[in-house]
Structure formats: C-alpha cells, structure tokens
Design goal:
Blueprint: H1 7-13, E1 18-23, E2 25-38, E3 45-58, H2 59-68, E4 72-80, H3 83-94, E5 101-105, E6 112-118, E7 121-128, H4 136-151, E8 157-161, H5 170-182, E9 187-190, E10 204-205, H6 209-216, H7 225-239, E11 243-247, E12 253-257, E13 260-264, H8 277-290, H9 295-309, H10 320-332
Parallel strand pairs: 1-4, 1-8, 2-6, 4-5, 8-9, 9-10, 10-11
Antiparallel strand pairs: 2-3, 6-7, 11-12, 12-13
C-alpha cells in the first residue's frame, strides 16, 4: 500500500489545497471541574472549581483539522443572530478562519453543546439547538454564496459535514452536488440519518458504524466485517458512490470500491475521548484523496489520524507533525 510513498512530500502537498466545508457548526463548551462529594439534594455528583472553555465544533472542527494539516479551509454555514453567534465569530477570528462563507439568520439560534467533565470523565452534556431546515430565503442566499465560491475556481474538494441541525437541507445537498459536478470538484460526505440517502454520486461517503446501521436498517455486529462489507458494497452501487469509508472505532476502518473492500484494524491507543474523531477522519481523507492516494491508503492514514485525536479529552484537531511521524513509523515498518 505504501511501498513507494514519500510521506514528507505527501504532507507538503496539503498546503496547496483549498477545501470548501459545508455543514452544521456549533460551539463546544467544556466545564472542567472536580468531583469530591455527592449532592445532599439528589444522588448526583457536585462539580466544583469549574473552568469554562469554548471551542469551535461541528463543521467548524473540520475546518480546524483541514487548517491543522496545512491546507486552506473555507467554512460555509449558518449561525444565529445571538450572543452565541457573536462568540462563534470571535472563536473563528481567534483561529484565523475566514468567515466569508457564513450567513447570520435572525430566525435561528447558534448550536451549543455544553459538556461537564471531571478527571477526564464525561458527566453530562446539555444541547441547545434547533434542527429545522433552513428557510427558502436563507437557502437561496446560502446556495448563491456557495456556488459563487465554487465557480470562482481554486476549490479542490467539498466536504459535507452533516450534524443534522438543518443547514444541509435536501435542496442544498442536491444543488451543490450538481454545481460541483459542473466544475469537476469532488465531494466527500460525513452523513447523518435524516439525509442519508440524498448523497448520491459523491466521491467518498463516510458514515460511522451507528450511522451505517440506521441508514441501511441493518442488524449486524461491529466485528462482522464480511457482512458489513457486503451491505456497504450493495449500497455503494445503488447510490453510485466512488468510495465508502466506514469508521468502526475499536475495529478500525473499512473502505470499499469497485466491488471489493479493505479492512484496516485500529492502532492500539489509550483512548480518552472519541468526540470529534469523525471530523478528523473526513478532513484527512479529503486531503489525501486530492493528493492522489488510492482508497486503502486514504483509509489507513485517516484511521491513524482519527485514533490520534481520541487520546485527548474533548474535541481537538489533528497534530500534523505527529501524524507524519506516526505515518513514517507505522507504515514503513508494517
């Protein structure tokens, strides 16, 4: 798979890539504290010494991963005209991410996920969100913005990052796919349930195991690789998808194309938090695909990247230098 791969040259190619990321964004808020006693009011832990931290999440975390790998992300999404929306823009500015693809809608709220964590243990999550599809007026504006960015040239790939919060409405999906085909820009998809079957004729489709089960109405176990591969290959043909990449957490990753599949086991790691691993996988997969790697190689490096971010608590971006070092060590010695 990697006999002649020059990983340093490969990673240097990422700096020339520009990726359009379209999907649901959010603020990931963390309340870090300590638990030393149980509440006398109810059998729940009391968290004290709380420190609050806000991070970019959802499709914005994909943008951070693309940027961390040295490429140029352009994030396209819709936020609310609220205090959280202002905070989101401040976080974008702190990370030197362009807001050229963002729209503010005064009829929506900005999604926020608040996690309470003690000693790296996730105690509770509170979600504040709305999942209605964008209004026709906002869809018109959003599509005009995206298509103008596409037709201006220089876009190497599009990532649909679907968190099922309403930005990727059926019309947005279909019209962007049509526009991307017109200018020969490949589309990679990280799907959710509501629009699972709408992503037809895309370059790469990356569900996780839970999404695959629900999307295909399957009743199989994660270790049943042969059954998973048969279902994936059938779906791939039906949807006319070039490559399907299924993340299987502790079972690694599976990729299929041209009626065959490759299963790549997970690398043994100390797992702290799996949040955001899918964002990292789709980001690295897009860059590797644009660089010309075949599907098994794309899957292998993406698998390594997804595992890396699971070693840290909370949603974090990939470390490109560490990923390069791991790639050199892992694949050249395998």
């Amino acid at each position: 798979m990697f006999e002649s791969t020059d990983f340093r040259s490969l990673f240097s190619q990422f700096t020339n890539q520009k990726v359009l990321i379209i999907g649901d964004v959010m603020i990931d808020t963390y309340l870090w504290g300590n638990v030393t006693r149980v509440s006398p009011e109810a059998p729940v832990p009391i968290v004290s010494g709380v420190i609050e931290e806000n991070r970019l999440g959802g499709a914005a975390n994909v943008a951070l991963n693309v940027k961390a790998m040295g490429a140029v992300p352009i994030l396209c999404s819709v936020i609310g005209d609220d205090e959280r929306g202002k905070l989101f823009l401040e976080l974008m500015e702190e990370q030197t991410l362009s807001d050229i693809g963002l729209i503010v809608d005064n009829h929506r709220i900005t999604t926020q996920k608040t996690r309470i964590i003690s000693n790296n243990q996730h105690l509770l999550r509170v979600d504040e969100e709305m999942d209605l599809f964008l209004s026709k007026r906002v869809q018109d504006h959003f599509l005009e913005l995206i298509i103008n960015l596409l037709e201006s040239g220089g876009i190497d790939a599009i990532i649909f990052q679907d968190y099922d919060k309403g930005v990727l409405a059926p019309r947005v999906i279909s019209e962007v796919i049509t526009a991307a085909d017109r200018v020969s820009v490949p589309i990679l998809v990280d799907p959710k349930f509501r629009s699972f079957d709408l992503y037809r004729k895309v370059k790469l489709f990356k569900p996780n195991f839970k999404e695959l089960l629900r999307g295909l109405n399957l009743d199989i176990q994660k270790h049943e690789i042969q059954k998973i591969s048969e279902a994936v290959i059938d779906y791939q043909k039906k949807q006319e998808i070039d490559t399907v990449l299924v993340t299987l957490s502790e079972q690694g990753i599976l990729t299929s194309g041209d009626g065959t599949y490759v299963h790549i086991p997970a690398v043994v790691r100390d797992i702290a938090d799996v949040s955001g691993a899918g964002d990292t996988v789709i980001s690295v997969a897009a860059l590797c695909m644009v660089a010309g790697l075949d599907a098994p190689a794309v899957a292998a490096i993406s698998n390594l990247a997804g595992g890396q971010v699971c070693e840290k608590a909370g949603v974090v971006s990939v470390d490109s230098e560490k990923l390069l070092a791991e790639s050199l060590h892992h694949f050249k010695s395998s």
